[in-house]
Amino acid sequence: MPEYSILIGGKAGEGLNKAGIILARIMNGLGYRVFMYYDYPSLIRGGHNFSIIRAAPRRIYSHRTGVDFLLAMNRETLDLHAHRRSAGTVAIFNSDAVKAEGIGLPLSQIAKEEGAPEIARNTGIIAGFCGASGIPWDVLESTLRKEIPRGLESNLAIARRAFSAVEPVPAARIATLPRTEKILPFLTGNEAAGLGLLAGGLQAYVAYPMTPTSNLLHFLAGVPADLGLTVVHPENEIGVMLMALGFAYAGKKVAVGTSGGGFCLMTEGFSLSGMSEIPVVVMLGQRPGPSTGLPTYSCQTELHFAANAGQGEFVRFIVAPGDLEETYFWASAALSLSWKFQIPSIVLYDKNLAEHGYNFDIDSVPPLPDMPAMAWDRNTPYRRYALTESGVSPLAFPSAKGAVVKVNGYAHDESGITTEEAGMVTRMQEKILRKGEGLAEDLRGMPTVTVSGSKGAGDTLLSWGSTAGVCREVGEALGLRVVQPVVLNPIPAGKVREALEGSRRVVTVEQNATGQLEKLLALHSIRPDGRILKYDGRPFALDELEARVREALA
Predict the structure, then answer these.
(1) pLDDT tens digit string along 66-112?
(2) Separation CA 62–CA 466 (nearest Å)
(3) Is the pTM of this model over 0.85?
(4) Rounded distance, CA 39 to CA 124, Å?
(5) Of 116, 243, 426, 483, which is the most exposed, with the fewest CB atoms less than 10 Å away?
């Protein structure tokens, strides 16, 4: 079955991300399943941006190194991506800026004649691609009408001229697939996370913009007012966490968004959540460090940081979804689990999942768990930290008649009064940790480990987070089993062992330099036979990982 890869590239600040999304939605509308890889440096203007849109008849999660179409807004794009070209690659470029072999379109001149800003040249090159590949004009026009709210008529005029100026290339013709399956929405991981949080009852979202979770802030800020969501952008990440705890103290289900550097500033407040038993969900988008590192690229380096962040000992829930459906489900579940057990939760994802584009199938999402918080019965005298067998105390909120709701970050008694009495300190520490037993019990009935590929195969890839998608594709191609622990704290070690049972060789695949999942599993006497690591900030290309897996299993 045919599949296609399209790269579009140019300078930062010229709308390349939006152009990539339009291309992805065009291919999606033709019946293909799509994936969009978006690469950009930490520059507002001037750096090289590009997107690779891969389209296939089946569900996909990754890109390939080679491309079938190379859409170049400048000479640099052709030079930097020469290694992706083959004899059949069709190059389409702005001939006002580039002199090369291929299909040249005077996009700057056309935009000027139509009185449109330079950014509208992207519409012209997209239209040139559609003309060259035989994609019908009505498909292009309908997509542009949905995606370009301002300056639509001038963009349509540019598109019409560029589309008409290109003759179809028979060898590169893209067919419309039969509509045997429904057209799935095309979303980013941040959008899926936002929808999942809303499905879980999110009432407040607090964040300071930080790649790769900034777009989650933007998405939730655009939620219709009638949903009753409060979105706040404080002055820094310290303020973010403290404001979020204030929302939760007042009874509002709350989440925060950040990356590793921002979470560093949040860790004292994260510990306050553990001691005061105020629930909060942290959407932690990973990017390479240490320090600023590669701020617009991706990694899987925060697993141990998340598992050990904050002083003292308290229960926290950590989940690392691998696709949009898991992101939606676990963002919702994390919110519910935080409130049921009055603990902090971390949804640990990364730039590859947060900002890249995928198809989303709501029908494949398991039913969201119904986990109501324990509410005060209004009959017994209220004690915020009442000692219970489960470790979970009834919740009441300020202004509740007959209740004094005192929370405390110091060691405290059942009423929240500061104490240093040894017996009470011991009982309260044990109360906090007892929550872990109930959390683990609730998780037993949830999809905490996934198995895909050839499930009975002797050779197994073991991955987590966004690497699971490309591993699934490699597993299908090579006849391998793929095991993905989704929940990472408390780690479902028994389920992982069961999923690995019968494996001859197990190879971990991670986007870090030290094998963080491998180290975590070793604590539970699960020791893989090999590892494949990548730590340059870029995701695995499908052909790249396939070659490395063949080498590891040779």
Answers:
(1) 999 999 999 999 999 999 999 999 999 999 999 999 999 999 999 99
(2) 10
(3) yes
(4) 21
(5) 426
